[in-house]
Amino acid sequence: DLGEYRHYMLKEIFEQPKAITATLEGRLAQHQVLSCLSGLNPMAVLAQVEEIQIIACGTSYHAGLIGRHWIETYTDIPCHVEVASEYRYRRQPKRKNLLLITISQSGETADTLAALEKVKQSQACLASLTICNVMESSLTRESDLSLMTMAGPEIGVASTKAFTTQLVALQLLLAALIQAQQGETPVSRQLVADLAQLPQLVQQVLALNPVIETLAERFVEKHHALFLGRGEQYPVALEGALKLKEISYIHAEAYPAGELKHGPLALVDSEMPIIAVAPNTALLEKLKSNLEEVRARGGELYVFACKTANLVPNEQMHVLELPPVPDLLAPIVYTIPLQLLAYHVAILKGTDVDKPRNLAKSVTVE
Ligand code: F6R
């Protein structure tokens, strides 16, 4: 039921505060994460983990990249991330007490399932855990532990609320991991406190919709776009580029902003729109100098920036301000305007937003 919305994608974008609330429901106490994992002895398993491998495809892979950033920032557990179609066909050295995490909206993605099977057959992991949106799916059946995202059915082929709830699930898992290995710590307490504010922050950012709709007009005639981010915002940029290409068919690429001068800067001219995500984190000043490199080459910049980032708009640089957010929530909050941008550009181009050409919602064949 579409209700007041024109497309499932838009409905699902606007459902995100509700989907996030549902994913948090019953899982947060005042200072700690409560049990959010189903399976045998989850906390005993987490207590033993010495290394993590995340496997996923597409948008779910982007969630994994952000998850790695969080896990390696807040624990001493090394974490690797790989797309399932590569991981499944390459030799894996044995690792000690490895937790294998699959991330999937559908729970039926062929490559992700095959990668899980391969690891299980070689007994190369301590346990497998899936972050999944479908309770009765192949991945939940085949995994030792499950952490369900409570996004509800996602109909639009382009994943939106499944992605942001995957990120919420990764934060719940991170807090549980810290609690299992070190007990309650200032970091696990901070995670819990930040998560509680998230639905309301996402709601605030959704209010940018009309501004983004207007901004979208500037992209309709474009054939290419470049997305930039640094740190955990680089995967946010990857996700923004994927959304734009899959529904508007505009060729989009994402780069870590520091890589610009190693090649992509050659593409920058007045025809190339560059979209950057700029929350007020430790890397903001670095990003600002990358934006300056783009400006100096005549590139047109669209920056989604924190109000406190003090980015001064000019003829070449459009700035859309977002409210200040805790570092841990920034990737989730900054994803929202990029989803809206892709949606409105696609609408203006007249594509079939909910069913983009050549794509299927669930990729059950290799
Ligand atoms: C992009 C998109 C795809 C899926 C990918 C994995 O918007 O939806 O990239 O993320 O096909 O699907 P799941 O998460 O079901 O394993």
Automatic annotation (TrEMBL):
Keyword Transferase set for record: yes
Coiled coil spans: none
Catalytic activity: D-fructose 6-phosphate + L-glutamine = D-glucosamine 6-phosphate + L-glutamate
Enzyme Commission number: 2.6.1.16
Any one GO molecular-function label of the UniProt entry: glutamine-fructose-6-phosphate transaminase (isomerizing) activity
GO CC field: cytosol
Compartment(s): Cytoplasm
GO aspect biological process, one term: protein N-linked glycosylation
Every SIS domain range: 42-184, 215-356
Main location: cytoplasm
Keyword entries, A-Z: Aminotransferase, Cytoplasm, Glutamine amidotransferase, Repeat, Transferase
Active-site residues per Swiss-Prot or TrEMBL entry: K361 (for fru-6p isomerization activity)
Function: Catalyzes the first step in hexosamine metabolism, converting fructose-6P into glucosamine-6P using glutamine as a nitrogen source.
Assembly and oligomerization: Homodimer.
Name the record gives this protein: Glutamine--fructose-6-phosphate aminotransferase [isomerizing]
Species annotation: Thiothrix eikelboomii
